[in-house]
Amino acid sequence: MADELLIGSHVGLGGPDYYLGSVKEALSYGANTFMFYTGAPQNTYRKSLDDMKIPEGRALIKQAGIDESKIVVHCPYIINPANFSKPDLYALSIDVLVSELVRTAAFGAKMLVLHPGASVGQDREQCIVAIANAIDLALEGAHNDVKIALETMAGKGSEMGITFEEIKAIIDHSKYPSKLGVCFDTCHTHDAGYDLFDFDNVLKHFDEVIGLDKILVVHLNDSKNVRGAHKDRHENLGYGEIGFDILNKIAHHPAFKDVPKILETPYYNEKAPYKAEIAMLKEGKFIPSWRDFI
Prior knowledge:
Blueprint: E1 7-10, H1 18-28, E2 33-36, H2 54-64, E3 72-74, H3 87-106, E4 111-114, H4 124-142, E5 147-151, H5 164-173, E6 180-185, H6 186-192, H7 199-209, E7 215-220, E8 222-223, E9 234-235, H8 244-251, E10 261-263, H9 274-283
Helix pairs in contact: 1-2, 3-4, 4-5
C-alpha cells in the first residue's frame, strides 16, 4: 500500500463491534487509514477498553495491510486547555488529555488530534503558554510514544491556533516539541483566511514558520464559506468554496505522500459520502452526480 493514496475518513466506534466495526467501516469505503474518537466527542464518558474489541480490530488492520501507525484518534472537542482562569476545568482538560493519550496507545495508534482550545476573553499569549503547559503535563502523565497533532482552526469565536504562528508558539513553549505536530485542516485554514488556491505558497509559508515535517495529519474538507469567514462549516468535496481541483491537488501533493488524509465531510441524505469521495480522489476526477449513487 506504500504507493497508494493514503486516504480515509472519520468512522464510528459503536456497539456491538466497536473497534472491529470501525475497521470494517473504513474498509467498506476503500480506505487505507481512518480516524475515530474513543468515545462521544461531546462528553468525557469513555467505555472500558476491555469491551472495545481492540484485538479483533487490530487483527483485521494487519490482515488488510494497513499501516497501524497511520491511524488517527481525535480528542473530544469539549475540553479547553487554553482556559487557565478556571483551575478545575483546566485540570479536567489535562486529565482527559492524559486518558486519551493512554487510550490512543491501547488501540495501537500513534497520533492524537487536539483542538488547541479557546481564549474565552483571556490574553492570547498567556493562553499559548497554558496550552503548552497542559500538553506537557499530559505527555508526562501518559508516558507513551503517542504524538499530539495540534489542529489548525477556523477562528470561530475565540479559538486558538488560527494562524501558523500561534501553532508554532505553542510548540515552542512546550518542553516536548518532538512529541508535537500539526493537523492541517483545509476547511479551517480556508476559513481562517489562507488562500488554498495558491497552495504552494501556503505550504511555503507553513514550512518557513513551522516546518513541513511537523504535518502529521491532513483533514481534507471543502468549506461552505468564503475564505476568511471564520465559521468552520464543512462541505462535501467539490460542492464548497475550495472546490475539488484544489482539494485533489492537496490530497496528491508530494509533501503529503506519507501523511494520512482524513475526510470529515458531511453526510448527504443521512448517508456517508466517503466511499464516493475516496474513489474520486483516487481517480483524480470529480463526478458531479456522485450524490445520486450513495
